[in-house]
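Q: Sequence in, structure out?
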Amino acid sequence: MTGRAPEHPALSFSTNAALVALAYPGDTTGNKGYSSPDASRVQRVIVELDSGFDAFDTFAPNPITDTTGNRNLSSLDAANIQQMATGLPVDSFPIIPPSTGPFQP
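A: Exactly. Output:
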């Protein structure tokens, strides 16, 4: 199934009826922003210090943090998140829009 985000009509997405996570790619903390802790948490999963992310404890880490789109986690995913956290654009995943309040599905 595919769809479009109503507030961002140019942003299309694919869904699987068995898995739905309302999350921004790379936002491992679930705070609707990119930061060094997001990248650090990805690195911890890669080296098997952690098995996932507290904000998404019922989901496997790959769908949340695979910023390269290759279905694997690597240091490149963490580097992409770190680049976004420092304000450097990365074309493989979207910029999180400024928050206007609590998330409303």
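The chain has a mean pLDDT of 77.
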